[in-house]
Amino acid sequence: MTRDRREAFTSYRQLLVQGIAHVKAKETNMAAQFLGRVLDGNAELSVKAEAAYWMARVSTSREEARNWLEECVAMDPTH
Question: pTM of the prediction?
Fold first, then answer.
């Protein structure tokens, strides 16, 4: 793995951590922005699965939450 690729993975993990912190602080709009960047980017699948799980936590409807949880399991069936 190249250095650039390792740094990209690290930055996606940092975005995930920041997103989770915003979820825990009940800052749902900020959380969704950080988690969305992880999901839209070239992060490792396990990191994307974790972001999808947390997106379910900030979803505004049960249907949206269910969709995120389905995405999470599709990306990582062991999650």
Answer: 0.87
